[in-house]
Amino acid sequence: MTDGPVDDAAVLDALFAGSPQGLFLLDGDRKVTRYNPSARGVRALPAQAVLGHYVEDFAPDLGTHEIGRLIDEVLTTGEPLRDRLVRGRSPSEPNRTLAVRVSLFPLRSGPGLVGVVEDVTERQAAADRLAVLSTVHRTVGATLDVQATADALVAALVPAFTDAAAVDLLDDDPAGAAPPSGPLPTSVPLRRVAFAAPSTVQPSRKAGDSRPFPFPTPYTQALSDSQARLVQFTPDDPWLATDRTASPRWWARRSTP
Known about the structure:
Structural class: alpha+beta
Distance between the termini: 43 Å
Mean pLDDT: 82
Largest sheet: 5 strands, antiparallel
Oligomer: single chain
Shape: elongated
């Protein structure tokens, strides 16, 4: 431990250079005058794309409206804001969704503020999954009515956990026979019972539609071996050509956070 004076500039340089969190210094016009280039989200951006720009210029899809509102509030009131959750697309990786905690502190020496951005994507994803499970446990299975249960399931999953969810079930046998147990042949039709998605998505199966899934696809694979699957794909995956009208092509535009 030294007794000499502390060089404030050196401390500030070390903080901006080594902080694992995103640090941004904004002037009174809301433009970035200094930042931490190693922070996730901007590390792949050239400095000229960040310095001298508004946040909405280099991070147009990272909750820009919310961040801009918070910046304006701090500059107007002079009061700090702490730990506000913001979600959106990563500025330097547009196919990746981020969850960040934003804190803003006004400068006392003049107009402007310091922004601290903490990446909490993985932590927030775990919290979101627990919240969805809690909702499912609370709302699904409260009744023996199949339709009500299916509706409750997709409502619990969309949009908190996923962009879309569907429930397809075996049709009741007209003769009243019990449904087959174990894996199902690919020719067996399934009836669309429930579906939830953004209003812009047009499902290929309407409620009440009953028909087999196209073969070969992950759907028919799951039916034939009764194994759950997590499928990551792109629009050019071969199985999508089997029946594009029945394939969720819009999912391919989504990315895994």
